[in-house]
Amino acid sequence: MAEDLCISNGSKAEKYQTLLPQIKSLIEGEDDLIANLANVSAALKETFGFFWAGFYLVKGEELVLGPFQGPIACTRIKKGRGVCGTAWAKAETLVVPDVDAFPGHIACSSLSRSEIVVPLVLGNGEVWGVLDIDSENLNTFDATDARFLEEVCSWL
Prior knowledge:
This protein is an alpha+beta fold. Helices cover 35% and strands 25% of the residues.
């Protein structure tokens, strides 16, 4: 695949429907995890203009910052802490319309207002990382984002 994305100007769902085949093509046949995570985070940020899009990887009892696009971020997050640590502990996608209302939210940036975190899960149910996306606006993420992002994460 070429290194340029074709980005739809349609609805959120239409943007995902245009983007997902491109992401699949981008990562298909590439076995380097870091390269794939980097390209996925770049494709998501470029398509939707998210404030921050990236990955945290499980290392022992912490999530450690992986490939991302956006401003500098928290480097380590304990299991069960913040949105990322909670999504890891529960092994479920969390959609947070207002991060200030989330108990124990970790503010890596005061500009982040809403967030979605999707766990990366092995076939045995073990979480090996999370996809974390932040927005500068409230109520950015919904079931549409969850559905399409979970599909992307299933490919990794």
